[in-house]
Design a protein that fits this description.
The chain is of the alpha+beta class. It is built from 18 helices and 14 strands. Helices cover about 45% and strands about 10% of the residues. The strands form 5 sheets. It has a 4-stranded antiparallel sheet with strand order 3-4-6-5. Strands 2-1-14 form a 3-stranded antiparallel sheet, with no helix packed on it. The longest helix is centred in the first third of the chain and has 23 residues.
Length: about 575
């Protein structure tokens, strides 16, 4: 995209969240293939407290037919758990390990979530959060989608004219997360190098606080063999409260990219968020995007770089890469779709003409990543051995590509890749995401059917809502679950904890996981720190763990608030 396209795209989102609607609604629909949506008045969103419930969204909101007040209350409790406890350390998603030896700690968490609607843990329970347990790291995938959830939530409340205190609270929580997004972008001290994870050093932590220098006395990078994450000290001198983990990987960068894209989709014209913060984030997005343009020693771009001068362990996003290696002409459709989404989100956030041109002229016009995605994204499907982390990465990239890649045929091809390559392929109907009951995937598919495909969209949204209604309620403890005992596994027939009978295929899933022929209902699915990257066919925990870990449920939050944000 050239600078003129960037200006047009910025204007098309100058509407406080109404999807791709400009002054001429029908012209936008024809130009961008966007979905029907009420025209946003030039003055911006309605005043807070006015409760103007006119938005038509995939998940109905208050005042819409089909609004589910019970699900909305569950979402509110997940928001309270997240911001009242899990995000305490960094403003980002993190698991909290409650002190198992102190029964009053768990009781305080239960009290907090059962007695009030505020976010003030100490006010409700009478004890400081730091006395409850320890906080684990805030990693890019979970931290990034948590920011996206907060952005969508704030945008929904703002655009509905929700109660002023609700809007203000949501904005403040989003801003805190964005400050940490900026910290993760800068803490390595090298523009374009982003942290894999952040960890607070002045609070009880679930990881060791020791760090490794970038180089030894002879100037050689440490550790000698690059690994998938080493803790480093703050390189800026401005963030002493944090240490950071290096070796940013594909799954982590797509989470951060979603944070950048969702933030500026919601905040593009919002003057209530400090412009200085938005300017820093634009610079962060531009720096990360520019590093992806660099052609490395192997002759390929779309690589992730680290502060020690090396590539990260899982650095490879190029369409010629297979995992950590290159194969010329590989036409990796999963990487192609992810790269379009990541670069598209960063370019939109950065307002950088060079990134626009890189996306439009290099990745789309010359290398046709849109066509590669449309032809080959299905290769992520490995049957019973599928890696659902890969599915999650590609669906997330597909969502970003839908939002930030414009102009036919590219926009049409990325939507088709999501619909016909990822979600359901009639020629190979077994174990497709359409049946997997992963709400996040359902809603991303639903967005890809717009503006046509009403029946398919309705079915996907209905299934996604069913799964969210069965989601573990807050507080979401990591309670072990074994649905199938050894005798049932041996017989091939298992009765799940809710009485559902499934056929199990044995330990033939990825990493020798026990899998069933049909998805496990969410109400009895083993707990996960992020369900959308976990195997929905697995009936048992891979390892029994203590139930003292409070999961962040950022998976519920990103799916729910995405569905509330996407215009029908």
């Amino acid at each position: 995209m050239n600078g003129g396209n960037r200006s047009a795209r910025a204007e098309s989102r100058d509407h406080f969240g109404y999807e791709r609607v400009v002054r001429s609604l029908w012209f936008s629909l024809l130009l961008l293939c966007a979905c029907p949506s009420p025209v946003q008045p030039p003055s911006g969103p309605p005043p807070c407290g006015s409760n103007t419930n006119t938005l038509r969204t995939l998940i109905p909101g208050p005042g819409q037919d089909g609004f589910d007040a019970t699900l909305a209350e569950a979402a509110r409790q997940h928001d309270r758990q997240f911001h009242g406890i899990n995000a305490f350390a960094t403003g980002l998603a993190a698991e909290c390990s409650v002190n198992a030896a102190d029964p009053t700690a768990r009781a305080a968490v239960e009290q907090f979530l059962s007695t009030d609607h505020s976010y003030d843990f100490e006010f409700i329970t009478g004890r400081g959060l730091a006395s409850v347990g320890v906080w684990n790291k805030s990693a890019g995938l979970y931290g990034g989608v948590g920011i996206a959830a907060d952005a969508y939530r704030y945008g929904v409340l703002r655009d509905l004219g929700a109660a002023c205190d609700e809007v203000d609270t949501a904005r403040g929580q989003l801003v805190r997360g964005l400050e940490s997004l900026d910290a993760a972008s800068r803490i390595g001290g090298v523009p374009g190098v982003m942290a894999r994870s952040l960890l607070r050093v002045d609070l009880p932590a679930g990881q060791p606080l020791t760090t490794t220098p970038l180089f030894d006395p002879a100037g050689m990078p440490l550790p000698t063999d690059k690994n998938n994450g080493t803790w480093r000290a703050d390189a800026t001198g401005a963030l002493p409260q944090f240490i950071w983990e290096d070796s940013l990987s594909r799954d982590m960068v797509v989470g951060w990219a979603m944070a950048f894209g969702a933030t500026f989709e919601v905040l593009e014209s919002d003057t209530t968020v400090p412009e200085e913060l938005k300017a820093r984030l634009r610079e962060d997005a531009a720096n990360l995007g520019r590093t992806l343009r660099v052609v490395g020693a192997d002759g390929y771009d779309l690589e992730l770089h680290d502060a020690d001068g090396r590539l990260t362990y899982h650095a490879y996003l190029n369409e010629n890469a297979i995992d950590r290696f290159y194969l010329a002409g590989a036409d990796n459709g999963a990487h192609a779709l992810m790269s379009l989404g990541i670069v598209g989100a960063l370019a939109f956030a950065a307002k950088d003409p060079e990134l626009d041109a890189y996306l439009a002229d290099e990745l789309i016009a010359r290398r046709r990543l849109d066509r590669i995605a449309d032809n080959n994204a299905h290769l992520v499907d490995m049957g019973t051995s599928s890696n659902y982390s890969n599915y999650n990465m590609v669906f997330t990239g597909g969502l970003l590509a839908q939002r930030f890649v414009e102009g036919d045929p590219a926009a049409r091809l990325v939507r088709r890749a999501v619909r016909d390559e990822l979600y359901f392929r009639p020629e190979n109907p077994m174990r497709q995401p359409r049946e997997a009951k992963q709400s996040f995937f359902d809603f991303i598919f639903a967005a890809a059917t717009l503006p046509e495909g009403a029946a398919e969209r309705a079915a996907a949204v209905s299934q996604g809502l069913e799964t969210l209604r069965e989601f573990p309620q807050a507080p979401a403890w990591n309670t072990p679950r074994i649905n199938c005992d050894d005798a049932e596994i041996q017989s091939g027939t298992c009765t799940l904890d809710d009485g559902t009978v499934v056929t199990v295929l044995g330990e033939i899933g990825r990493n020798d996981t026990l899998v069933a022929t049909t998805p496990i209902p969410m109400r009895v699915r083993p707990r996960s720190n992020y369900y959308w990257r976990s195997n929905p066919y697995a009936p048992n925990d891979s390892a029994a763990e203590s139930d003292s870990v409070l999961l962040s449920t950022v998976d519920f939050r990103v799916a729910y608030w995405l569905g509330r944000w996407l215009r029908e």
